[in-house]
Amino acid sequence: xxxxAVARHKTALTRVALSRPMxxxxxxxxxPEGATVFDYGCxxxxxxxxxxxxxxxxxxxxxxxxxxxxxxxAAVVNLGFVVNVIEHPRERREVLxxxxxxxxxxxxxxxxxxxxxxxxxxRPMGDGLLTRTGTFQKFYDQNELAEWIESSLDVxxxxxxxxIFYVFRDEAAAQRFVASRVYTYRPxxxxxPQAQYEANQQTLAPLLAFMQAHARPPxxxxxxxxxxxxxxxxxxxxxxxxxxxxxxxxxDFWDRVTVQRRAELLIYVALxxxxxxxxFSQLDSSLAADIRALFGTYQEACLQADRLLLACGxxxxxxxxxxxxxxxxxxxxxxxxxxxxxxxxxxVLQVYxxxxxxxxxxxxxANMVKLSVTEPQVSYLTYPRFDRDPHPTLxxxxxxxxxxxxxxxxxxxxxxxxxxxxxxxxxxxxxxxxRPLYSRLTRAEMRAGLYEHPELIGTAKGWQATLAxxxxxxxxxxxxxxx
Length: 483
Ligand SMILES: C[S@@+](CC[C@H](N)C(=O)[O-])C[C@H]1O[C@@H](n2cnc3c(N)ncnc32)[C@H](O)[C@@H]1O
Fold this sequence. Notes:
By secondary structure, this protein is α+β, with helices and mostly antiparallel strands. It contains 16 helices and 19 strands. The protein has a 6-stranded mixed sheet with strand order 4-3-5-6-11-10, with helices on both faces. A 6-stranded antiparallel sheet has the order 12-13-14-15-16-17, covered by helices on one side. The longest helix has 21 residues, at about 250-270. S-adenosylmethionine (SAM) binds near residues 9, 13, 80 and 95.
């Protein structure tokens, strides 16, 4: 379809894999098996093909490529990179509303981000750009897209990732999504061997997993019937099974699980404040039961969560909590934490980071989080070779500024002298099995005098020069004499 000078039909790509919005929804557990999917503005239909191959009943419509298909409602509707190719703001809004009308449970909306247009040549047209190929592109800032969705639908969208938002029909589903994003950590558990436990270990595993996850025993219906029946048959009752688990484990372990679960719930309740905080009756029943068991009342949890939220808006509190953190690497301006250790930093800092994710969504490739202590800013850093390379280099950074409500992307993949990491153990969690290997290397590097001039070793070239000067090189995570 060519509208005036705009060639919209040229915007559809050929995709060799599921599109990023659909892959994101799947990774977030929002495409349950068998869910119907409708792809609104499906282009050449590649997502349809991939979704069908995965077993989803998927249909789609596109004004250019599938004009005769029926527009039908579905559990999940995808509006993938459609709104940014429409040059008329009014039509753009109408398309969004039509897609929402077809949505039974979840609408996934995506649009191209301002940084996608950085190198694009074209001439200004309306609120976007007419490209050389004659297509229109409106590039969005993350917050602009969020506000536009909310004002068009009168429903609060949730950021899934930069340029991708979810809109839920059902509040409980939305809250389950918010809760699922809180980081979790459980301390290591030791079992005191006992014959009856060992004989029933497999049967007891689902009950143990539930108790570890929720810091409380399950209520009726919270364990799948088959698993519940097996426990009853083997141990006589759920109560007896729980007592057996408690006998073979440490009280101290359960105290720590309770502390962790309470923190997770507080972080969740704090973050649920964005938008309108749900009523207790709107919460998923297991989540509601956890809050009751660990806080007594929802009001009490909200009160404590609001204190956390208040604290995380105070840069002095962020500073104090960051400096007091036992986990993460301290630098003058920030605390750096590996993503796998995020659940172990103080709750205020987790809420601080959570606020950034409310705006930006999840950055799947990022494995390091930088929490600034000097300004309200969180960065998500991608070090693709963190595990394999003793001194991995930075590939990209997404920085979220909570004062400016901005999300910026910086690419280092073509940099000749990218920043790199040292002392990798410092970024990791307390029980992380990688720690001994990394610490051993750090000690060897210190003995070799490689850290004497920290100002020289922060980037790839300076580090290579330091290694060469000391006559050493790296073989895996071992330091060896060169030549
Ligand atoms: C960049 S493509 C995206 C296609 C597909 N969703 C994907 O992610 O690969 C934009 C699509 O939007 C379609 N489109 C343009 N105007 C539309 C409208 N008013 N309603 C629905 N789709 C439209 C175009 O035909 C084009 O196929």
